[in-house]
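FAQ: What does the model actually see?

It sees only this:
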Amino acid sequence: MTMNRIVTALSVFCCLTGQAQAQSVDAGESRVLVESGGWRLVGDFVLPRSDAPVPAVLMLNKAAGDRRSYAGLASQLAARGIASLRIDLRGHGESTNLGEFMPGELQRDPLIWDAEVDVIAAHRSLISRPEIDDSRIAIVGASYSGEEMAEAGRQFVYARAYVAISPGSFSDSSIQAIDASGVPWLFVVSSHDRFLREITADVWSESRTAGLVIAPGTAHATDILATHEDMAERIATWLAHRLR
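And it is asked to produce this:
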């Protein structure tokens, strides 16, 4: 793909800022448990006050991370009338009743794999809530959970939109399924993330529809949200546009 397409994608993304403006919205937050194959997944559910079902975004942690990194994005979404469920996948955060993932053991620790069933379980939990418009659910994944959410879509049902932040383990099957899914995908990566160069190039060459945002620096996964103060707002605006 050409640099013109990168510029176009960035321009479209920047133009969305200012649309779907954040407003002062009452929202309640509650702790939830989602059962998934013996795992008790712990999450935080944020629900804006509304007389009608609202859209929702499911947020998935990076490897050796947890749901706390999405607190800012959850606030930005709530301000746009969008509910959210940020959840600790198996072996992470508070979801450790069957074991804890150990950083540095990514290739050997089985706890981190097969988390696509956790994504499906969390997606089902949102669909089952009467407060949620089940036709307007999006998913955000970071690092390894980008691949997990893509595989969950192929096994279960695709969400309305996806944001993949530094999807370092994104497989060829997932790349080939981007356009076939029929839903919008946004990839957010750092310009000097050494883990993403080949994957970013493959996504850009194989997909005609994926959006790509390149942030300066080396931050990986949800560290991008912490490093770039405006990124949560920009992602929330993109999601609000897709969930209208």
